Amino acid sequence: MEPASIDEVPLLLEEVRRSGDKVVVRGFGKHSPDVRGVKKLYMRKLQGYEISGEELVAQAGASVTKAQEEALSLGYMIPTTYDGTAGGLVASDMPSPLSTAFGNPSDWITELKVAFPGKVVSWKALAGTFGKLGAVLEVRLKLFPRPKGVYTHSKTYDSIALEEVEKALKMRPLATLVEYEGSWRVYVTYDRKLDLEGFSVDEGAVGLTYQPSKRTFIARPNGFTEFVELVKRVEPRLAVYVHGGSYAFFEDPKNEEPLTKWGNLSTGKYLVKRLLDPTGIFF
């Protein structure tokens, strides 16, 4: 199913409900694993967006990359490095290195419209529900002034130096990214160049290139030190952390117990799902 207008979406979902089928919502389809045996609702034709002042209004299938380019040309930015659709950004509440200074997508949403069978609900709390609580139709986001300078400081550690990294995180960074894959790679971005011992400096920001898979788990560590402790405890093949991000990623961990599978709803959101999606059509 590939609706050409927003009005078609709740009607298509009503058809799915009546048929007794289940459905998954997709944008470009590049950030989510393939799911078989269910219907797919592709939102990629709903590409409209508009920037007005310090706000962006975007349909679910609008390209975040294209909207970002226009925002930057106007002296603003969407504080994310996400390269999918507006709907995917909101549905995943995907953190990016810029979450450190600007928060996560759910923090800058001012209005969110979500489709259900036969109806549309406007509720910001439906961000971060992975398309399992409805189909994102349209979102209104706050834009931020484009920084005048962007300098990324990076360093590799065989054994992480907690005090050194924690000190760097307290110096008002714009963005952060920590990647663990046997060794540690730390990126800290500021609006100015700093003299941090052992760190190399490059102009520009680092993006989050990690793509979740079927073996991705998440957690919400309370700070960098707790993230490091989690890495030691769960022994992942790969881990990714953004200071201030909505969650951290752990790929193929040996110990899954303290983690949550990527894409699963929290207990509170499962209760909301029972109210808004009682027949369980959203897979």
Description:
This protein has two domains: 8-146, Uridine Diphospho-n-acetylenolpyruvylglucosamine Reductase, domain 3, CATH 3.30.465.10; 151-261, no CATH class. The chain contains eight helices and 17 strands. It has helices spanning 8-19, 64-73, 86-92, 99-102, 105-108, 162-169, 224-234, 267-276, and strands at residues 23-26, 39-42, 49-52, 55-59, 76-77, 109-116, 119-122, 135-142, 144-145, 151-157, 175-180, 184-190, 200-203, 216-219, 238-241, 248-251, 260-261. The longest helix is centred in the first third of the chain and has 12 residues, at 8-19. The model has no long low-confidence stretch (mean pLDDT 91).
List its salient traits.
globular; single chain; 8 helices; alpha+beta; 2 domains; 283 residues
- Strand percentage lies at 25-35%
Name given to the CATH architecture of the largest domain: 2-Layer Sandwich
Number of domains: 2
| CATH class value of the largest domain | Alpha Beta
Total DSSP helices? 8
* Strand order in space, largest sheet: 13-10-12-11-15-16-14-17
Q: Share of helix among residues?
A: 10-25%
Number of strands: 17
Gyration radius (Cα, Å) is 20 Å
What is the average of the pLDDT values? 91
Large-scale geometry: globular
Element-by-element helix/strand order: HEEEEHEHHHEEEEEHEEEEHEEEH
Taking the sheet with the most strands, its summary is:
8 strands, antiparallel
Poorly predicted tracts of residues: none
CATH topology grouping of the largest domain: Uridine Diphospho-n-acetylenolpyruvylglucosamine Reductase, domain 3
- Class inferred from helices and paired strands: alpha+beta
Kindly report how far apart the N and C termini lie.
15 Å
